[in-house]
Amino acid sequence: MKWIREYTRKREEGKGYHVRRTVYANDAQRNARTAYPSNYVRTTRYSLLTFIPLNLWEQLHRLANVFFVVVMVLSLTPLSPVGAAPQIMAVSCIMGFQMLKDLYEDWKRYR
1-34: per-residue pLDDT in tens? Predict the structure, then answer.
């Protein structure tokens, strides 16, 4: 975070947006001493902490999944002619398979 403060300070002093960098070819030890930010590009959609919340959020944007969740909630009421267990199993299977598919795709993207 130190480099952010230095970059912001230099920008405020009127030095502009450019920060001078010196990179030494084939010299990893000298380059390791610099405090430049990494150029790592992350192409994965999820992390370990955000997989379940983000995936559920994305799945509930699909109209078919919202329909199945509404039918499941209605089957939990006493007025429903069918039991709740088949509806819960249907929703959990549909959303579970979609989660596994998204997890596999994200893992492939990570490799």
Answer: 555 555 555 554 554 556 677 777 888 888 777 7
Alpha-carbon distance 72 to 75, whole Å? 5
CA angle at 43 for the pair 42 and 48, rounded to the nearest 5°: 75
Maximum pairwise Cα distance, the chain: 74
Rounded distance, CA 52 to CA 42, Å?
Answer: 19
Give pairs for 95-102: CB < 8 Å, separation 24+: 95/56, 95/59, 95/65, 98/55, 98/59, 98/65, 99/52, 99/55, 99/59, 102/45, 102/46, 102/55, 102/58
Q: What is the pTM of this model?
A: 0.59
Packed helices 51-59 and 84-110: angle between N→C axes, nearest 10 degrees: 120
How many residues would you count in the chain? 111
